[in-house]
Design goal:
elongated
Amino acid sequence: HSSMQSIVLLDDLVTKLTEKVADLTISFADTKADMRNLKTSVEEEIADLKTSVEEEIADFKTSVEEDMADLKATPREVMIVSGEEQPGETRCARVCAGTTGRGTTTWNDVSSHGVKLSVDISKCGFVKVPTVTTSVEGKSAQWRATGLAAVYTTTTTSFIMWVEGLQHSPQSGNAESWGWNVEWVAVGYIC
């Protein structure tokens, strides 16, 4: 009788194991189907995203092209009618202005009653020698000096000014104590 019970128990075990294997097979098949569905869903989302990005890029490109057309059609407010070198392209004209700064300008003594200053204009980005107009601003005595608008040795990155005092010498720190500084406007080409 015990061998019969063993056979029945063994048969029950085989049945349960078969059911578990069947359940696992179904579960595996369901997981595989879920993975296929997920893959399809992700592929669709990627395709939609790609289409959306391509549309946005196309819209941006169209917008840039329209802006460039508008820019080309816009009349230039800067016109250089003559200069030190051959003219550049009209679209490359630039007005650049600056100051050497009140209280920060250091003049160098030269000649018997004069001072000299090199002015950096490199941040303007000129590729051809610009036309430079200057003025000396300050608290005192600049109205009595000569050379206030005289520009020397202009390059694409700098120019030099020489100023001489007629009745009062700007030397020995006087130009600094009077607050002399150069205010300038340069017009030239950046391409």
